[in-house]
Amino acid sequence: MRFEMGTSPLLEIKDLHVHFDVYGGTLRVLDGVNFTVHSGQKVGLVGETGCGKTTTMKSILRILPMPPARIPRGEIYFKGQDVLKMGEGELRQVRSEGISMIFQDPTAALNPVFTIGQQLGAVVKYSMEGKKLSKKEIRERAIIPLKEVALPDPERMLDSYPIQLSGGMRQRVCIAMALVASRELLIADEPGTSLDVTIEDQILRLLHRLVEEKNVSVILITHTLGVVRETTDRVYVMYAGNMVEMAATEELFAQPLHPYTRGLMDAVPRLTGGGIADGIPGRIPDYLNPPPGCRFHPRCPRAMEICRQEKPSFYGKRSGVSDNHEVACFLYRDSE
Ligand SMILES: Nc1ncnc2c1ncn2[C@@H]1O[C@H](COP(=O)(O)OP(=O)(O)O)[C@@H](O)[C@H]1O
Ligand code: SF4
Ligand SMILES: [Mg+2]
């Protein structure tokens, strides 16, 4: 870990609530999310499909469709400034210089009617903040990230259309674009999940190598817990719109505390699809009527009466449990 304690975080999300107004009512998805990334840190974010991971990340970049989305409460500080209060100009600067995001589906992120060179060139131009470059210079700069992501024949790649490339190549192109655009924080939201497992693994490892070289901060969302364990410093576990546990990666894997985290660990290797295979029965709740109290209580093997009535706050900071380890569960209430 390279961040210094005491310095202000690169990213700090406080008490974030996101609702979706849909036919039939309001989906109360994010329910007070707190999340912090320090400069240089690699943070893993895990949780089943539908827990609100992508919604949290899209909120940071303000790319949630509004409506149906709404943010009734919360703050998102990037380098000390609340993204939710920014005007278009400041926001554009955050997107071009501060944060970039790689999405799960590599096809959706690329425009089919432009060549890779045109699209990468646009990102290169955008990242130059108005500094004029000749066509030749743009091309030269666009080739560099393609080489970095180990794409064969980058010259030819620049003149290809997305459809001419395989899914794995397209994902590499997306990583190349994110590397050009990002200077400080890279959000990788399940990169490669839509691809073959071995290609996904290659993509995740490539990403890790590149971010290590460039020393950017990373938020990695993946269901591949082995990769989280190997490549991140800190892990957040999310369930049904709440962060439920956070700890240094080593600590979390050595001593998972939250019943949900324990279920996830038992469900390795893949968390996609319905429910947690072999872990905990049941599904993510209906966000139209989320359960009161701890949202996990209908599935929790350790649920108590209080869990049905009150929402647990975070415990652990001042307990025998290690300093960095926090868990939102009444089982640890007395450890403070
Ligand atoms: N555009 C949308 N309209 C309505 N509901 C949405 C929309 N996007 C997300 N949601 C709701 O938010 C929930 C969480 O989704 P998401 O953030 O994509 O989860 P994850 O990334 O953890 O799989 C979904 O189950 C859905 O109920
Ligand atoms: S607060 Fe209660 S229901 Fe929630 S995880 Fe802990 S024991 Fe289970
Ligand atoms: Mg997602």
How is this structure best described in words?
The structure is a single chain. The chain has 336 residues and is α/β, with parallel strands linked by helices. The chain has a single domain, classed as 3-Layer(aba) Sandwich (Rossmann fold). Helices cover 32% and strands 21% of the residues. It has 11 helices and 11 strands. The strands form 2 sheets. The protein has a 7-stranded mixed beta sheet, with helices on both faces. α5 crosses α7 (167-181). The longest helix has 18 residues, at 197-214. The protein is globular, with a radius of gyration of 21 Å. The two termini are 26 Å apart. 43% of the residues are buried. The structure holds adenosine-5'-diphosphate, iron/sulfur cluster (SF4) and magnesium ion. The site of adenosine-5'-diphosphate has 15 residues, from β1, β2 and α1.
Overall morphology: globular
How many DSSP helices?
A: 11
**Major beta sheet, strand line-up:** 6-7-8-3-9-10-11
In this structure, how is the largest beta sheet organized?
Answer: 7 strands, mixed
Total number of strands: 11
> What structural class do the secondary elements suggest?
alpha/beta
Q: Strand fraction band?
A: 15-25%
Number of structural units classed as domains = 1
Poorly predicted runs: 269-275
> Secondary-structure element order, as H and E?
EEEHEEHEHHHHHEHEHEEHHE
| CATH fold assignment | Rossmann fold
- The CATH architecture name reads 3-Layer(aba) Sandwich
Mean pLDDT figure: 85
CATH class: Alpha Beta
CATH superfamily: P-loop containing nucleotide triphosphate hydrolases
Which ligands are bound?
A: adenosine-5'-diphosphate, iron/sulfur cluster, magnesium ion
The radius of gyration over CA amounts to 21 Å
Helical content (DSSP H or I, runs of 4+): 25-40%
